[in-house]
Amino acid sequence: GYAEIDDDSPDQILYAALPPVELPALLTELGRREGLALIAFDKTNLPPESLPFVLSPTEAKGLDFHSVCIVNGGALLRSVSGERAHTGINAPATALAKRLAIDQLRVAISRPAERLLWVDTAPDPETVKQVSWLLRATGELGLRPVTAEALRASLDEEELALEERIQRCQRDARQLVPVKPDLAWSRAHQAVALLGTPGDVSAVVDTQAREAAHLTLAEVCFLLGVRKKTLSPELGHPDLFEEGARAARSAGSMLWASAMAAIGRAAQGAGAGGRNRGAGAVESGAAARRDLPAR
Known about the structure:
Radius of gyration: 20 Å
Structural class: alpha/beta
Mean pLDDT: 86
């Protein structure tokens, strides 16, 4: 195995994926935050203006920070997670390189006491999948990446009460669907991530709050799917209907989950007419649920 997030992991883990053009401004902002260290495994392609703020794993070893942002760690993770056996004259060198890479990952991941940020630029879907799996919470399938804008919003809201942060994420997610699909999807996922893992000391225990966050994610995924909104490739090409169905199941809405799963299957086939009729029915149901009085 390679580096893993263990029981001593930071309280908060955020994963952002963004186009390269957005990296300089983000690194400049993060580099100015008190108590936050930037760590990169390869500084070659980083913006020159960010280099004074960026540490290598060797430079960071033995140091402790409140927060750490790992920059473009996905490429290194891919280099150590291959399944192919290494044989021949280069096998020892390759094995040594992988061990060194694993050590670098472990050093970087273990530096923060409270918050770990992981930022990748233009990751391909397989990189997103592997990083999501590495950063996932116990019992989860993966930690979905968010946009740089969503990352900034999360950091700006860190002083708010947890309940208010979750509600803000949900509100943003719903209203941004027509105009900023990436941010809507990101904020919906942030609301669910803020709930925490059931059973953890810091997890939200209010059943209605947990249900509302998962239903928001289900609704956002569904609306993006039926409206054929395309998310940026950096976010890993998620199956919106599958994600929506999974969120609906987490909220206990099995009928809605089944409907979304069926629509998703139809969307992948030729049954466009049936898909649109089914989508209209589910969308009407989602709208009707929003009009119900709060419990």
